[in-house]
Amino acid sequence: MSTSRYVVPFAEGNRDQRALLGGKGANLAEMTRIGLPVPEGFIVTTDACRVYLEKEDLPDGLMDEVREHLDELEKAAGKSLGDANDPLLLSVRSGAPFSMPGMMDTVLNLGLHDGAIPGLAKVSGDERFAWDAYRRLLQLYGKIVMGVDGERFDHRLEEIVEASGGKDEGDLTAADFKQAVTDFLTIIEEDTGKPFPQDPAEQLEGAIGAVFRSWNGRRARDYRRMEGIPDDLGTAVNIQRMVFGNVGTESGTGVAFTRDPATGENVPYGDWLEGAQGEDVVAGIRQTQTLEDLAERFPQAYEQLRETMDILEAHERDMCDIEFTIEHSKLYMLQTRVGKRSATAALRMATEMVGEGLIDTDEAVRRVKPDQLEQLLHPQFSPDADYQALTTGLPASPGAATGTVVFTADEAHERAEAGEQVLLVRNETSPDDLHGMIAAQGILTARGGLVSHAAVVARGMGTPAVVGASELKIDMKAKSFTVNGTTVNEGDVISISGNSGEVVAGEVEVITPKPEGPFNQLLEWADGFRRLAIRTNADTGPDTAKAVELGAEGIGLCRTEHMFFGDRLPVVRRMLLADSDEQRTSALAELLEVQREDFVEILRELDGLPTTVRLLDPPLHEFLPDLTELVAKEARGELTAEDEQLLAAARSLEEENPMLGTRGCRLGIIQPDIYRMQVRALLEAAVKVEKEGLTPIVEIMIPLIVDASELELIAGWIRETAEETLERAGANVAFLIGTMIETPRAALTSGPIAESAEFFSYGTNDLTQMTYGFSRDDVEATIMPTYLEKGLFEENPFATIDVDGVGRLMQLSAEEGRATNPDLKLGICGEHGGDPKTIALAHQIGLSYVSCSPFRVPVARLAAAHAALGHAGPGSTS
Amino acid sequence: MSTSRYVVPFAEGNRDQRALLGGKGANLAEMTRIGLPVPEGFIVTTDACRVYLEKEDLPDGLMDEVREHLDELEKAAGKSLGDANDPLLLSVRSGAPFSMPGMMDTVLNLGLHDGAIPGLAKVSGDERFAWDAYRRLLQLYGKIVMGVDGERFDHRLEEIVEASGGKDEGDLTAADFKQAVTDFLTIIEEDTGKPFPQDPAEQLEGAIGAVFRSWNGRRARDYRRMEGIPDDLGTAVNIQRMVFGNVGTESGTGVAFTRDPATGENVPYGDWLEGAQGEDVVAGIRQTQTLEDLAERFPQAYEQLRETMDILEAHERDMCDIEFTIEHSKLYMLQTRVGKRSATAALRMATEMVGEGLIDTDEAVRRVKPDQLEQLLHPQFSPDADYQALTTGLPASPGAATGTVVFTADEAHERAEAGEQVLLVRNETSPDDLHGMIAAQGILTARGGLVSHAAVVARGMGTPAVVGASELKIDMKAKSFTVNGTTVNEGDVISISGNSGEVVAGEVEVITPKPEGPFNQLLEWADGFRRLAIRTNADTGPDTAKAVELGAEGIGLCRTEHMFFGDRLPVVRRMLLADSDEQRTSALAELLEVQREDFVEILRELDGLPTTVRLLDPPLHEFLPDLTELVAKEARGELTAEDEQLLAAARSLEEENPMLGTRGCRLGIIQPDIYRMQVRALLEAAVKVEKEGLTPIVEIMIPLIVDASELELIAGWIRETAEETLERAGANVAFLIGTMIETPRAALTSGPIAESAEFFSYGTNDLTQMTYGFSRDDVEATIMPTYLEKGLFEENPFATIDVDGVGRLMQLSAEEGRATNPDLKLGICGEHGGDPKTIALAHQIGLSYVSCSPFRVPVARLAAAHAALGHAGPGSTS
After folding, report:
1. DSSP string of B721-790, one letter each residue
2. Which residues in chain A have their CB less than 8 angstroms from residue B804's CB?
3. Is a pLDDT exceeding 50 seen at residue A223?
4. Burial class (CB in 10 A: 0-12, 13-18, 19+), B94
5. What's the 3-state SS for B167-222?
């Protein structure tokens, strides 16, 4: 074993050392360990990176250790770094503990210098290769280590291609590359005031530092925030002998997956290029070839590749993604990792691997991310659709959308009002664009990351969005954008996929996937592991039916206020404007009739499953027209007699902060008639459904309490009304009475509250609003994106529960509530109920259930299984 | 010692048994114990009452115990209950552990029946007395025990007085009273269907139950809520031999105080009536006589009274309030207690008794209630004013007010807009009256208690109010009220005193008292005991000066937003409407100038005392006109060019719930320029003041944080700006950086927050708003009165801190904050800072200071001393 502090050779590491060696390094070591053909190399560990980030300099003695391991490497390779006759070339690649594809930097061909080109040309027998290798080093090193604007190199190279009369780099000659080398050396010196370092040791030291620095690059930080990867892990650096797929004729390079990463089918899938270096395959400049082509072209190497893939998949018990190079007919493995896959593929692989005996069902459940399931339920581009993406941005909010392009929020709003389906395209959005974002079918931005304003707001609204599509050049004056040569004008139709980030001209056929075999199979397995019950938030019969179909085990939140809108609104207004008790009573009686029918519809869908009905929650002014509109009408002298009444009512019910005003049980306490009516409607519905031979299970929930006294008072009224109702009906229906815990004070006084409650349901939306003092409507489009971008918050607390504040209140409440009443049922019914991290918290606190929107039910089922399998947190399935 | 469970004779109790015997009973026992002349009697304990309230029936065996002690009493008195020849008569009086004057019931002359009148006439030698005694029993017993409407008796008696041609009861003859007895017996039987019980044992049992029941009477419950007396204490019943001040000629009855309860002067003060029973003195029907008259009329009894008073005051070491009766020249003590006193008197007595060596300074400090001090600082009727009160209601909100009477909120609003000072008179108020209540100088209601809507809202607004002035008969049609024969019309001027509850026709001279000798003396003593520092909330030089004069030891909250209004508003709007950075910067520079001068003014007043300056807190739309008004203007086509800009800005800054929106540090994070400007203005001011030879002590406070990250970010900006500013000025001023803790989340994450904070200041207003989910503006006039009246809340959490919710968060925050940073300074700067119960909590949590409005500073100093003396909680000084 080496005594190094900061360097580990491939031959001494293994795949369990991801934190220390990074994912790439650990896998290179593992492959070396099991005898796969990996070029020699060693790893500078993440420990060294953390020291570097702390003191902004390499750890003392690091370069000595590197030199020591380099000596070993030179011995094994039979070449020396810097040797003018036969130079050893190195690749210097980043490799973090969690995969961060393309987010960090790499330097290839390190070790070349002016004096070594003739030697390299000679040993490789390829002068063009030698100059090409050198210009690649200058290009990468100049940009990454020395900070030169990469466009300067690209631009110069384009000029050389043009001058050569060829169509791309493949057509350039040794002389052309030599010219490029001369020009690049000049660019570097001009731009940085320093020459390119001719000393390979200096190059290596610079490259290691640059890879470390790239950990804190803007894109890397954004990516980590999105993926929930901690900022203090650091990256390792993999230093490895270069092999070349672009030297001589029997060479090539490629990437491959042991199974199809798009469909999940159990056939290997890959792309390769003859006579090319790795980056050429990824860059997509040349048309790649298939594995079938490889089998034909280099049958021996192909055979070796297939064997290696089989060994790897059996070893990892998962689909692997590999990078390989064939140098002079010999196969080298440059990288492997568990492969990324589409949601469909993840499901298919997981279930098929159980069938193949490769993994157990718990492992299959672990292998699919809850959010992947959600993607499968949103509308998406049809797999049969034939389209060519104009460009690909970041998939910021799932779903597919098609619409006519507009460039301003006002235009979006106007056209949408006129019935048009629009797609809002902006460089970036701001709170001023909100009305346009609401009006749009989808949102596309040229700038911004996954926590940009557009991304956060779109996810909040459930609108598909692609952000940071940086190839888009928007011309606001011309009202058009160009992308890769195509110009799209205002009014043209485009489509976007918030699942893949693709942007497509014209309409793309969209399908809303139906859950099928592997989907249901996996969830069935998940149900066997989870301890949390999954309920749904639903207010109508059809929503309830949908949720039950997706596996909901009851309703956790039936909001009754929705039953006051639509064609009931005139009756509700009559109740609010009533001059006399009779008018009021008659309006309430009408509402009773319709509410009862609403409840009957819902209870029929839930035969034998519990239904938690929340009594009326919102402030009454929500049932009136907007005050500002009425005032404007008044100023114009346009008020009708009814308007005048409405204006008076709106004035008297107006509140500065309705969220903190007369709503929830406060309303119930001031106007007990409404609650009595609702209880009567619900129990009459239950009696009716029971007479139909079904089993209604009714739970009555009181919103927004702050003190046990409110619950006691209202529970008394409920019992009175229930007794009257059931006596009149000559029936007996059991029911529970419980309460939302959605104010901090209710959480803090849960002990006494539990004396009168049979269940608690955490209303995490309001609890978050009040714990933070955030009005979701107001802050989510204004300060939240700023807070996320500045890193003040790691997550949007309206999406993922805030463990330190809101979660702490819930934990305390659950403990003290159960201390008073050990039979207390506990659940979550805020929108957080469908969020996997929140579900993990709910599991940990020991809640009985979570409740979420119907389409999140499968996600919640899977997340609850993950929680039970002790599997949660960032990046753990990647 | 008796072996009774529920009965204690006077001779066996003492003054330390208030909880068991009630205050009255304990004092009667104590007087008996020290040999004062108390008629024989015994006490049915509060234990019995609690059993009665629980099972709605007297405890088993209670009446046997009563019979046993009655035997003793009969033996001592030499008379028997019910004896037709010489009947023993009993008084049956309530007596709760805390004084609840007039709130509960009493039955006198119990034991009389038809057959005993001749005997009583004979032994008393006074037939008129005998019939009068009987009709009094019938009247009280009928009303209290049997539930007859008391007005029926009063009305019948008035008829008899009228028929007799006399002017009041004093002119009635034996025959008249005999007639009254006949009529009253008929009324009772008609009204209740049952005859008056002729059996004295039955009378006694009925009276005991009635007294117990009166514990839960409406008025008693309201009173307890106001005074913070628990509902489950129960009352005792005092059963005592009657003595008569209305029999024969050498008799009388009176009430007296050992010192003057109005001024505090050390001379006895009293009222008495010759030939009268106790209730006649209190009823105020006949003109009472002074103690000087008593000395002249019955010199011997007077001498005995003075001696008894001296014994009592020496024994109690406090001013005593006594009831006495002289029967056939012999003095009897019927009751004593520590006397109620005016605020002025409380101060004078406390300080003088220290001078007299009667009590120590700590006791003197304990003897004055903090709220009494506040009364002394509010405007009040001049003691020299010559007025006759029309009536007296409940003093609901302190201060004196004069204005023209109006009967509707609209009228109040209109007249006030026109510059008139109005006084709003209503039967009761509702949220619809709010605009009128705001407009009025004072509020007077005929109905409602101290937690009625009018009372709660008036206290919240600091408007003087008298409520429940039940003698007022309001005629809304005629727009007038009558009270005790006087009619007052709309537009007439009246005055009210919210200290005394008095209502006076015309204007009464009002003075705003100046603190004087005893005031300052007492506070000086208080300062010696307290551990909490007292700071003030002040935003201007004059307010600061006033607070320092009243003893403030610094500013705990200097709100800078006030510095943005008034003549600065146009500049602020220029900043908000700026089209360019230059416009914005220039407006900010102007604001910098004026803010610096504001700070200079304040810092000059606080030489050597700390000044906590809160950076801008409110949402920006507060600096714009109301959106609704602008929309109405727009609808009328009246917008100027500037209005149009303002409208656009108001629309873009509009928030659904501004309380939970972009305010506090959120604003600072989005618009750092404003905070930088404020920090610069403050530090430049400090430099200037320091150059004047003064010592500025500056603390910069960041509002509304929810997470340590916000504080870190802003603290960084502050340090940067401070460094620049001080460097430019070539000066060095030390300053602290701290934060408000005013969101539940900040409280819950105080540990990490304390890493970047040098002090915490609890913003209890916002913390209460968010912990309850109550917008103070919205709920205080709507649901709060309902909640208090229904007993859902014991106190308004905006007046007295909620210990279970908000207090718990504070406690947790203080503990975790100090665990991180043991040097952390902790204070309260919400309006609760001046509330005695909150101060007790602050003391208990171990805060460093509380901060309150300038006029509450003396109250807070005293309350902090009480807290340190372990003296807080309801009723403890009464």
Report:
1. HHHHHHHHHT----EEEEEEE-SHHHHHTHHHHTTT-SEEEE-HHHHHHHHHT--HHHHTTTHHHHHHHT
2. 745, 748-749
3. yes
4. buried
5. CCHHHCCHHHHHHHHHHHHHHHHHHHCCCCCCCHHHHHHHHHHHHHHHCCCHHHHH
CB of B628 within 8 Å of any CB in chain A? Answer: yes
Which of the two residues, A308 and A373, has the higher pLDDT score? Answer: A308
- Chain B touched by A790 (CB under 8 Å): yes
User: Residue A656's pLDDT band (boundaries 50, 70, 90)?
Assistant: confident
Please name the residues in contact with A98: beta carbons below 8 A apart, sequence gap of 6 or more: A23, A227, A229, A233, A874, A875, A878
Residue in chain A closest to B713 (alpha carbons) equals A792
- CA-based nearest residue in chain B for residue A704: B773
Contact criterion met (CB < 8 Å) for A670 and B631: no
Residues 6+ apart with CB under 8 A from A278: A245, A253, A255, A323, A325, A334
Of chain A residues 289-348, which have a CB less than 8 A from chain B?
Answer: none
> Which residues are CB-contacts of A760 (< 8 A; sequence separation ≥ 6)?
A738, A739, A740, A741, A750, A753, A754, A813, A814, A817, A824, A825, A826, A827
Q: Rounded to the nearest 5°, which phi and psi values hold at B834?
A: -100, 10
End-to-end CA distance of chain A: 31
- Judged by CB atoms closer than 8 Å, whether chains meet at A779 and B666 is answered as yes
In order, the DSSP letters of A117-139 are HHHHHHHHT-HHHHHHHHHHHHH
A845-854 per-position pLDDT tens digit: 999 999 998 8
Average pLDDT, chain A: 91
Interface mutation target, options B662, B745, B802, B811, chain A, most CBs of A under 10 Å: B745
CA distance B135 to A809: 64
Predicted confidence (pLDDT) at residue A628 exceeds the cutoff of 70 = yes
Whether residue A874 has pLDDT greater than 50: no
The helix/strand/coil state of B828 is strand
The two beta strands, B236-241 and B106-110, are unpaired
Which residues 638-697 of B have a C-beta within 8 angstroms of A? 652, 655-662, 666, 669-670
- The pLDDT of residue B857 is 94
Contact B770 A773 (CB under 8 A): yes
Distance from CA of A229 to the nearest CA of B (A): 18
Q: Contacts of residue B627 in chain A, CB cutoff 8 Å? A: 628
Chain B residue with CA closest to A706: the answer is: B772
Measured distance CA(A526)–CA(A869) in Å, rounded: 10
Distance (Å) from the alpha carbon of A53 to chain B's nearest alpha carbon: 20
Please identify which of the residues A69, A378, A413, A453 carries the catalytic annotation.
A453
The residue assigned the tokens 């207004």 is A573
Q: Does B146 touch chain A (CB under 8 A)?
A: no
Q: In this model, does residue A542 exceed pLDDT 60?
A: yes
Residue type, B295: A
- ipTM attached to this prediction: 0.81
**Grouped pLDDT means (10 residues each) for chain B, 878 residues:** 79 93 95 95 96 92 95 94 95 89 83 96 92 95 93 92 86 94 96 96 96 88 77 93 86 92 90 82 72 92 95 95 92 92 90 96 95 84 88 89 95 94 92 86 88 78 88 91 93 94 94 84 97 94 93 95 86 89 94 95 96 93 87 90 89 88 93 95 97 97 97 97 96 95 98 97 95 88 84 90 96 97 94 90 96 91 95 39
Buried b (16+ CB within 10 A) or exposed e, B316-328: bebbbbbbbbbbe
Among chain A residues, the shortest Cα distance to B747 is held by A805
Active-site annotation of B, residues = 453, 829
Distance CA A696, CA A680 (A): 15
A636–B662 C-beta distance less than 8 A: no
